[in-house]
Write a structure and sequence with these properties.
Low-confidence stretches: 246-260
Radius of gyration: 24 Å
Distance between the termini: 35 Å
Largest sheet: none
Oligomer: single chain
Helix content: over 70%
Order of helices and strands: HHHHHHHHHH
Strand content: under 5%
Number of strands: 0
Shape: elongated
Mean pLDDT: 82
């Protein structure tokens, strides 16, 4: 559950950042662009129950994380500065299917595998896990992308003969972050940079920004791939094959006797 929610939070941070900074779209346009992904998660979470009679939780878990991995790799390869909406939306659609399926699956497993006496504790732990994972996923995605951008941009600035040390000294290179090209031009207007140097700085920013996003998505894909391993510990039976676990049953009986 932590892996599922953290990945979703990371993508919900990365893609809007890409749309607003790289594409230069407004927050409203960004929200509209994310609607297909959120709707896919919503409907997948409802419709996945239709395959519970044919696939075990272990199979759904592995397939779900596999779909998320494929979607993130796809997004890493199709994102461009001249973004074509259909390929990106297809990647978000795939990721939404995996996410929605996993969220519902894991909730059902938690409910069926836990004794009724611990239902309140399970619900509280699930809520805490989701909140923590959302916060960690967003924070890690932000730190990862900014760190990648700083490393890539500094390397290219240092290697560029056009961006002289004199110009670099007039810009705060210790605080590199995602900025639009228009914002970068505005900052460079306050320096002694020539039009050629400004154009070179914009080129470096454009390329470094896109490469950071691509690498970030690939790292997220790697994490989704690793999550297939714990998914292999999910129950491997169909609803009609659910075994009777004597330990939880005994715990429920003892709890009932203690209360009475």
């Amino acid at each position: 559950m932590f892996a599922v929610v953290a990945l979703e939070a990371a993508l919900n941070f990365t893609v809007p950042l890409y749309i607003q900074i790289v594409q230069g779209r407004s927050p409203l346009a960004t929200a509209i662009a994310m609607m297909p992904f959120n709707l896919t998660v919503f409907f997948s979470a409802m419709l996945i129950v239709n395959v519970y009679e044919r696939l075990t939780p272990r199979q759904i878990g592995r397939y779900g994380f596999s779909v998320c991995t494929i979607a993130l790799v796809w997004l890493a390869f199709v994102v461009r500065n001249d973004w074509s909406e259909i390929p990106v939306l297809f990647g978000l659609f795939l990721f939404g299917i995996g996410q929605g399926s996993l969220v519902t699956l894991l909730f059902n497993v938690l409910v069926t595998e836990s004794p009724k006496a611990l239902a309140g504790d399970v619900g509280s732990l699930r809520g805490t896990t989701q909140n923590l994972a959302a916060a960690v996923g967003t924070a890690v995605a932000g730190a990862l992308l900014v760190g990648l951008l700083s490393t890539i941009a500094l390397g290219r600035i240092t290697a560029s003969p056009v961006l002289t040390p004199e110009l670099q000294a007039q810009v705060d290179l210790d605080n590199i972050t995602f900025v639009s090209n228009d914002r970068l031009r505005t900052v460079l207007e306050g320096t002694s940079g020539s039009p050629q140097q400004v154009a070179e700085a914009v080129r470096v920013n454009t390329e470094a920004r896109l490469r950071a996003l691509k690498i970030g998505l690939l790292i997220m894909a790697g994490l989704a791939l690793i999550a297939i391993i714990p998914a292999g510990q999910l129950p491997n039976y169909l609803p009609g094959e659910i075994p009777i676990d004597e330990a939880p049953a005994r715990a429920c009986v003892e709890e009932g006797q203690r209360i009475s």
